[in-house]
């Protein structure tokens, strides 16, 4: 076999490889040739820099509202979450964005409130809670129906977390717009029943959802129990259940919150008590008939009006109807009490089941479990309170009462904690639970409980608990003075039950409970809310004392007397620190005073009311005087002072101690002139009961209080201050004094008018004799001290008011002692008044003095005044030159004013008066060392004399 030929392993050269050209193909371009032609195209790239400034308002990430709203529809959950947070940040930085783009924001937010991602829903809830307080009801009202639809949709969602989050969002709307949400409750309430059925552990609930969705709107409703077996087979399988007790309690709490918006819950607040008192006070006649407990059981403690259109109703349809007919059924608003009864029948089994599942029999339950028990009980109380006004709930009330005694009462009372630590949260909530359970039992007693109902063994634990609470067993006696005031609030909420059962109790039991109430009332702090409830309870006892079952009870009469006597004492303890409670007590006493059948009881508190105005303590040493103490009346607002004075009007008569206290109050400078005016009217209406001497003495005391407090600010009117600031202060004080004097003059005028009206039926001597001695004493005091000289005119007006102005002979009937002092008093007043008079002005009040002069038919008064003027001029020659000149000038001006008076013209024409006037002119003209101003006045006096006497 020959050798094989060796293979050729030589590689071809790559540098000079020549490609074979195909037929009809162009040769490729030369790679070594540079292409000098090119094409260009513009690129549009959006700006994404966070540093770039934009014209619109942006948030901290430099995003506008338009950008954020667009991202709410993004498929990514994180992008939607960031967009929601961005909107919240944008609104917080620029609040005006919300008002400018409210529609766009709300329409986009509502789309993500039921988002599948829990973080997006949580951020949306935070955004809504921030936006709602920034909007009022009018602005938000167009969007409430939209949110209600989405919330209802969320409550029927397949995911449990979305259903519960929709309730949280609903709570946010209830907190901000309760009235608006209540208008759309027909969309929401049925869904609560549906939610409770989903988490129910038994089959006792209704078989068909009450949702407003189209799938459930046509199903028949059976609210009385389970369906027959034949119908149960046709029902579809129930939706997946959460089977969580916490979830069910959460739903019940949310439902209770919504029902509180729709139903007026039992209200024991101060505002409700005051509205009840004012309502009764405004009635002119207090009803004296027997209290009808069947019609108004809790009228004063709680408002019973129930909002009739509360829940939604699905029309009952026949199972044989066609699907076309069923699809046309629309939900309507529940209006009849029977439909409300059906709602309670559905909800109460669920509440009982929750109560039993929570485990109330566990002695070591936590605080969270206690809160859940309290929520269930409050919802039961709300439903029972809602049903009690319906006349068709007697049978249901009986069934509910049996269930309550069977399932709830065996666990009563709860004592978690210790009375030695009454402020611990466990002890406080256990007291709240016991109080709520007792109130529920009180509702089940009915409108008119009989002795048989009260003595029922099932109610005895609650009755014993009420007595133990009033006796103070909820708080340890060792620490009661420092702690436990908050616990007493729960005790005060039980007082309405005592009023309910009191007519049916035995005498011994009634006495023990009322004695316990007295102990409880005395231990309450005067400024606490339980004390206000005790005061209102006393008012309730006063209203039902006409009940024939109580009128013969001795212990009840004793507590009525004790309660009335305690109210004035409480007024004094409160002082001016709690005006609301003070007004409450005064209004209660006014309702008692207006009732003529209780006049003897009302008169018994007059002495207890005296320290409220003024009192004098008993001295330790008989030789010394007691201490004068003003009550809180002076420091109260004017409206409360007026109400307190109204209390005196309804007394059959005012005793001397009360009159003395009113006189002392009127003498206080702290009392306003308006209140003094009020007292004048009050006393004038009671003058027949007081007697003329006491009434006149009272009027004089008020007059003296005014004259002693009058300041002589007018004497400084012509003086000027060197300092500008002093000048301003002087002007302010002068203005205030003018206003004050005008008020005093109004009071004096009214006082004089009241005295003058007595002359229609009373002779002059009976009026003027009692006032003569005090008036002379007060006039002498003013003349000697030269202080408050201008108050003399008030005393003159009092004297003049006792005279008949049309009978000049009565002037001579004035007592001799008073007639002797009148010329000096009138001249002193005219002389001092002239000191403040400029040459161009008139004397302050010349009218009163002229009236006395004209009333004297013998002209002795005017003659004595002119003689005093001459004597004053002569006696001034011994004074210094400055003093003498001032006296001369004052007398000249006084004489000029008397001569210018038109009323005295006829009197001045008499010969005897004319001689005295010329004598006075001659005396004044013969003065030596006259100043230029005196010469001018003498010339003016001479001119007036010539004009007067036609010389």
Question: Low-confidence spans: pLDDT under 50, at least 5 residues?
Answer: 201-243, 284-335, 711-739
Mean pLDDT: 75
Structural class given helices, strands, pairing? mainly alpha
Spatial ordering of strands, largest sheet: 1-2
N- and C-termini, Cα separation? 195 Å
Number of helices: 44
What proportion strand?
under 5%
The total count of strands amounts to: 4
Described by its quaternary structure, the protein is single chain
Major sheet: 2 strands, antiparallel
Rg calc: 47 Å
Which bin fits the share of residues in helices?
Answer: 55-70%
Protein model, in words:
The chain is mainly α. Among the domains are: 53-175, Leucine-rich Repeat Variant, CATH 1.25.10; 542-671, no CATH class; 686-704 and 713-949. Helices cover 58% and strands 1% of the residues. The strands form two sheets. It has a two-stranded antiparallel ribbon with strand order 1-2. Helix 16 (367-387) runs parallel beside helix 18. It is flat, with a radius of gyration of 47 Å. The termini are far apart. 32% of the residues are buried.
Secondary structure blueprint with pairings:
Layout: H1 65-71, H2 77-93, H3 96-100, H4 102-109, H5 118-131, H6 137-140, H7 144-155, H8 160-176, H9 178-182, H10 189-198, H11 229-232, H12 245-262, H13 270-282, E1 312-313, H14 323-327, E2 332-333, H15 337-358, H16 367-387, H17 394-408, H18 425-444, H19 451-454, H20 460-470, H21 487-492, H22 495-501, H23 507-523, H24 529-543, H25 548-551, H26 554-574, H27 579-594, H28 599-603, H29 606-609, E3 614-616, E4 628-630, H30 638-649, H31 656-667, H32 673-685, H33 687-690, H34 692-709, H35 724-757, H36 764-785, H37 792-801, H38 816-835, H39 847-855, H40 860-875, H41 881-900, H42 905-908, H43 911-925, H44 932-949
Antiparallel strand pairs: 1-2, 3-4
Helix pairs in contact: 1-2, 2-5, 5-8, 7-8, 8-12, 10-12, 12-15, 12-16, 13-27, 15-16, 15-17, 16-18, 20-23, 24-26, 24-27, 26-27, 27-30, 30-32, 31-34, 32-34, 32-35, 34-35, 34-36, 35-37, 36-38, 37-39, 38-40, 38-41, 40-43, 41-43, 41-44, 43-44
Organism: Polysphondylium violaceum
Pfam families: Ipi1_N, TPR_TEX10
InterPro entries: ARM-like, ARM-type_fold, Ipi1_N, TPR_TEX10
